[in-house]
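Checklist before submission:
- one chain only
- standard amino acids only
- sequence pasted in full

Submission:
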Amino acid sequence: MRALTFGFVGVLLSAGCASGSDASPTTITPTTTIAPTTIAPVPHPLEEVEGCVFNPGPKVWICEPDTDLIGLNLAGADLTGAELYAADLTGADLNGAELYVADLGGANLTGAELTGVDLTGVDLYIADLDGANLTGANLTEATMGYADLTGANLTDSDLSFAALASVTGWNTVKGKDTIIGLGQAFNVPAS
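Returned file contents:
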């Protein structure tokens, strides 16, 4: 392991310590040695989920239908092109996740957090989005036929060119008056 050299001579290092701690500030001198540290990679949240595998060819996650992802913290996870067909993502935190062109058809996203998520081209056919928070989500070109949108929050979301054929619960959707691109969406239900 190689040592790294930094120009910090004379810098005072200190950490916020609880009272009674015996740790004291350290001044770096030209002879100060800092032990090398290895930073382990952060595992992907789906690595430990039974029924999910990573396919290195197209570099996508694939989960078997009905995989239990209930309440899983997937915030910020790269799920680009992931195959999550019929997965149970009830209450999952997907804020900041990368879901571009993912397959969420038939997935249960009841109460899921999807604030500001890029869902461009995502398959949400027959997905259950009951009570899901999609505030500011980009649903451009999403396929949402027969999806349940009961109580979903679509405030400031973009539905440009999204397919909304036969969605249910449209009359209970929150934030409809702020949806972007609704005039360009296909098969928008009557309010």
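Reviewer check: Residues 1-6, 14-19 have pLDDT under 50 and may be disordered.
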